[in-house]
Amino acid sequence: MNNHAFTDLMAFERETQAIAAVAERLGWDQETMMPRGAAEQRGEEMGAMEGILHARRTDPRIAEWLGAAVAPDAAGEAQLRLIARSHARAVKIPGALAQELARVTSVAQGVWAEARAKEDVAAFLPTLEKVVGLRRQEAACLAEGGDLYDALMDDYEPGATAATIGAMFDRMRPRLVALREKVIGKAAPRVSGHFPAEGQLALAREVAEAYGYDFTRGRIDLAVHPFSSGSGDDSRITTRVVESDPFNCLYSTIHEVGHSSYELNIDRGLKMTPAGRGVSMGVHESQSRIYENQIGRGAMALWLYGRMEARFGALGVSSAQEFLRAVNRVQAGFIRTEADEVHYNLHIMMRFDLERALIRGDLAVGDLEEAWNARFAADFGVKVDKPSNGVLQDVHWSVGLFGYFPTYTLGNVYAGCLWQALRRDLPGVEEALAKGDTSGAVGWLKERLQRHGGLRTPSETIAHACGFAPSEGPLLDYLEAKFSGLYGL
User: Fold this and answer.
1) Could you say which of 1.10.1370.30, 3.30.1120.10, 3.30.70.260, 1.20.1260.10 is the CATH number of the domain covering 162-487?
2) Pick the catalytic residue: 100, 138, 256, 472?
């Protein structure tokens, strides 16, 4: 039994995780505090960091340690599995390509943000062309003759393929479209009033605290596109403020609190190890979506109604139930992050098809805006009015996250399963949430899922938490029951 090899490997991996955390902090700084003029330099810095990380991830000693190491327990076996997977992928990618990808995507983020602000798609397309080209090169290295898009998606949801995701989308689409047709156009109230930025951010902090977010190990900042960053004892969130729309800030905050809480609630013994992070983006998204939707747009909204009235005064709705309907208003809007639960997955299905076509070479970057606008009009019945409401709205493609979008819907599917199991195990949970008490729901998620980090595969993680294998059925049943009730269908 060679425990020395296991110990040496884990010590080496801990250092790699620490360096990766520093690189991640550079990315957080770029989105929140970095001066605009530093973009090119930050690209060089990110490229240099990726060069160091790639060299460590492909270090020949890893293969030697993996060959000799014997795990002391089941957790150790999971660590070896994750390290072996990461090493096998890393050695297929040339170091120069990894470094160039990090540099270009860092710079591209700023190019995208400026093009978005100016509604100038043409200014972004040359940069996007570079990003797509580099990611296709990377995918070719990983796929070894297989499907390029599958190779990229495996980074975010190990084991998932375009075929399995596409089949799931095909099963979901008819029920989603049928529900949309029943609900769309039905009257629903809107909140109105004055919502100053300072008040929104103060309430966002209060809401985060109500969900148990640990501000001794986290913080809230502003970003163009909200995100969370970090793990272990440092996991931060961002939000954005639109003074005419308080839900933008509040529900972005709740969403990111879900992501960040997952990281902060992983068992401390797993910190700075491969299993000390969320197991996949689909599982990660299940946490942000259940915090935001099943909890935040469900009974918890009844508590939020009182907090918003206390902060902002009259909201233009007559009761907590009217507020609940306003929070869950169904409309064919342009923006994915602001989409209601009925439309949200249709946004993802569109992006999945477009980005898969880009990576497979079936869609040219120069034709992307036209393809987006045509597909959006067909799917949503609305013409895109400006690029920031269309092809420039999401940050993902600028930073090379091809294969990431489908994990959002997969996260919704997982959240549907978790909500069914949570309500089964905690019959009074919604009454508690209506009073602002999240301890039961959040405690269940922490114990059943979050604390285990990456010890299991994604599907095993959900099955362990729920007691049954994940499928889209619970999500669709939840959506139909919820919106039928709200809209009297």
Assistant:
1) 1.10.1370.30
2) 256
